[in-house]
Amino acid sequence: MKIKQNFHIHSQRSCDSACAKILDIIAEMEEFGIEEYGLTDHIHTAYNLPDIVSARRDYLASRPPVNFHFGVEVSCVDQRECDRVAAGDYTAWGDEPVYGFRDMTDYTGQMAIGITPDEIRELGIEYVVGGVHWPLTVSEDRDALIRNYFEQQLFLVRHPSVKVLAHPWDSLAHAVGNWYRYRDKEHIDLTAFRFIPEEYNDALAQALLEEGKAAEVNLAVIGGAIPEIREYLLKLFAGWKQKGVRFTIGDDLHNAHFSKELFERAEQWLAEWGFTENDFVLPFQQNLK
Fold first, then answer.
1. Domain residue spans of the chain
2. What is the pLDDT of residues 141-182, one digit of tens each?
3. Which residues of the chain, if any, have pLDDT below 50?
4. Which CATH number fits the domain 72-250+258-279, given the four candidates 1.20.81, 3.40.50, 3.20.20, 1.10.10?
5. Can you tell me the distance from the alpha carbon of 95 to that of 241, in angstroms, rounded to the nearest whole number?
6. Residue 55 phi/psi, 5° resolution?
7. Which pLDDT score, from 0 to 100, does residue 228 have?
8. Kind of pairing, strands 111-112 and 77-78?
9. CA 271, 7, 241: angle at the middle one, nearest 5?
């Protein structure tokens, strides 16, 4: 199995710690023999929109080759977060809401993404990947947190602007280990994945098939140092593949340079679970039904 695509890459314009330069991305993807790849800087709410504008400017200035595409990664947020950013109602929070309002206690349950269809068109965004990055609940109950992650993922799969479900179930272990206090990485519950109801995964697979969307095999997640989670996810994806779900691949680059070793290890893991190049699609295809 040869990895020929990479549709989850962050540049130095992303609103987080990413630091890769566009010209380095192009050079290294060509060196690795990646045939199709794309940028996906983060946008959580409209507060991050200037970062995407800057990323688009860098992308165009690079004279991008035809196989280099421009996308974004959205998060699932509460509509009230979008409303507060639109109204400029965040000065009392102290810090600027780069990640939205993670200490909210008044979640409405009305989920949203932080970019509009008009903005997607105006910025020349070819595809949108959507991922769950935190709970939209202040509950400390494990099952409630898992349920919330499932509901967010289902929302993203059903959203008309989202083409790919990014890194399914990623960060769940942190969420159950007190992620509701925002990225307290000292508290990780590795048992969390054991409590995901099978019916949740069946429902996600069904939604992916009904909507003609792809699920992402995220190399940063499966290449992490937690074998139990890698095993869980590869088994899950293999099961989804048998149901007819299609996939994209993204390495979720946040560093300055790519890791060839990560790509090579992932190729081996995917081959061991029966994946071939034919199981992967281009995210800007309109419909995978």
1. 72-250+258-279
2. 889 999 999 999 999 999 999 999 999 999 887 777 554 444
3. 179-186
4. 3.20.20
5. 43
6. -65, -40
7. 84
8. antiparallel
9. 40
